[in-house]
Amino acid sequence: MRLAEQAVKENHSHIGYLEALLAMESEERDRHAVANRLHEAKLPRMKTLEEFEFARAPQIPAAKIRELAEGGYIMRAEPVVLIGEWRNRQDALGDGAVRGRVPPEAESAVHHDSESGE
């Protein structure tokens, strides 16, 4: 209903309103599909940087981690090397892989290791 009220306020055409409604519906379906796939995959709960307690791990520079999370280094084609022990309670092997999301606009800049198939 808010979208309809906003369309009236902004004097949008019926076509403009329907386009906005379709875009909202499409985004909602995409979010729902991703949530379903994650649930069906039975992956561990998604963790975010906001949840990480940097105070409990003072050796981890919070500002640098947040900067890396923004992904600017990918667009600038700068290498990133993470040194240190890696472990995950859900992953008994602790293969040392760094997992994360790449911003869509930077996907073409990501180098994939041909030996590991990633």
Question: Can you give keywords for this protein?
Answer:
disordered C terminus, 4 helices, 118 residues, mainly alpha, 42% helix, 0% strand
Written overview of the protein:
With 118 residues, the protein is mainly alpha-helical. The protein has helices spanning 2-9, 14-41, 62-70, 72-75. The radius of gyration is 20 Å and the shape is elongated.
Task: Map the helices and strands.
Elements: H1 2-9, H2 14-41, H3 62-70, H4 72-75
SSE pattern, N- to C-terminal: HHHH
How many helices? 4
Indicate the low-confidence ranges by residue numbers.
Answer: 90-98, 112-118
Strand content: under 5%
Distance between the first and last residues' Cα: 44 Å
Query: What is the total tally of β strands?
Result: 0
What fraction, in percent, of the residue positions are helical?
40-55%
In short:
With 118 residues, the protein is mostly helical. It has four helices and no strands.
